[in-house]
Amino acid sequence: MILIIIVFAMFGMLSPASRGALMTAAIVLFMFMGAAASYHAARLYKTLKGSDWKKGALLTATLYPSTFFGMGFFLNFFIWGEHSSGAVPFTTMLALLCMWFGISFPLVFGGSYFGFRKQPYEHPVRTNQIPRQIPEQVWYLHPVFAGHRPNCWQVP
User: Fold this and answer.
1) Torsion over CA: 119, 121, 123, 124 (sign)
2) Separation of alpha carbons 62 and 107, rounded Å
3) Model confidence over 83-106: pLDDT tens digits?
4) Signal sequence span per UniProt (predicted)?
5) Contact predicate 38/61, CB 8 Å
């Protein structure tokens, strides 16, 4: 999605002179990319032997957007409390909510419907039916420690 927005900006469709064009393009693109996201999510769900495509579509349509919409709405309360001009008006939040349920939701369910009707993804290799033993790792190779050590320098 970011790559598409950058290409739009390179071709001059998003100008710094038009305020809000970048954010509008990002929101509109996010609404319409839900169909592609749910199409691939449904095919992956079918590959992993899932059977209830509607549950997967509902999770695709709500889990990520509702988390960030809820956080934005919650943080906007604090901005409203300070009577700041940078607060997003309630009508704009309501319009975003209507676009989410009116545009994104049906597109996600449509993409999921068509994705679940397709063949599941083919696995590139044949899996062995005999499970292998995974040896116990030493404590310093655990992902918590191995991921923490290289990133310690980032903390001031």
Assistant:
1) positive
2) 12
3) 888 888 889 999 999 999 999 999
4) 1-20
5) yes
